[in-house]
């Protein structure tokens, strides 16, 4: 019984991985989400119903691909934070830790990757905006949990507001960056991204930290 159960679990995991990889391949080939469930099933070599056994919709597949992309960035955030001495739990110390992580993480490639997967958020493609917000919300909880773990004595609301403000701001400046520079990673585009991160940090800092 255990062997049969293990085999079924392994097959399910194999199918899920094949579907996600097929989505990645189609995105790369077609430059975005211009494919349907039938295309995805054929590329993954599974039945159409198998796709829906693992994912609620094609959008859910795309969000999973984005979540994996963003998780790499969040992992870098967490690795950077883990190397940073724990502060005193004040708002300022929590902010300093996340600011350093945001500057140290290689966010620009993740933003360009999400653009290819989801499209540019905005009025021309409102669905892309919804998907982008959903993808970020899926990984924001990981940051909130890490900040709470490092600062158990901190006000939970303060910690949550900080993380949410920073991550929401990254979505906003990511949209602006794509619109003004295009999905590029040359020196000029990366410099523009760094400038936007600095502007975001200044804005969140002035609104988050006490003025005394």
Question: What can be said about this structure in brief?
Answer:
The protein is built from 9 helices and no strands.
Quickly count the domains. Answer: 2
Number of strands: 0
Largest sheet: none
- Helix segment tally: 9
Alpha carbon gap, first and last residue: 66 Å
Helical/strand content category? mainly alpha
Radius of gyration: 19 Å
Give the overall average pLDDT. Answer: 82
Element-by-element helix/strand order:
HHHHHHHHH
Beta percentage is under 5%
Q: What portion of residues is helical? A: over 70%
Shape: globular
Q: Segments where pLDDT lies below 50 for 5+ residues?
A: none
3D structure, described in words:
With 212 residues, the protein is mainly α. The protein has two domains: 2-54, Arc Repressor Mutant, subunit A, CATH 1.10.10; 58-208. Helices cover 79% and strands 0% of the residues. The protein has nine helices and no strands. The protein has helices at residues 2-30, 37-44, 48-54, 58-82, 91-104, 107-118, 126-150, 156-181, 187-208. The chain starts with a helix and ends with a helix.
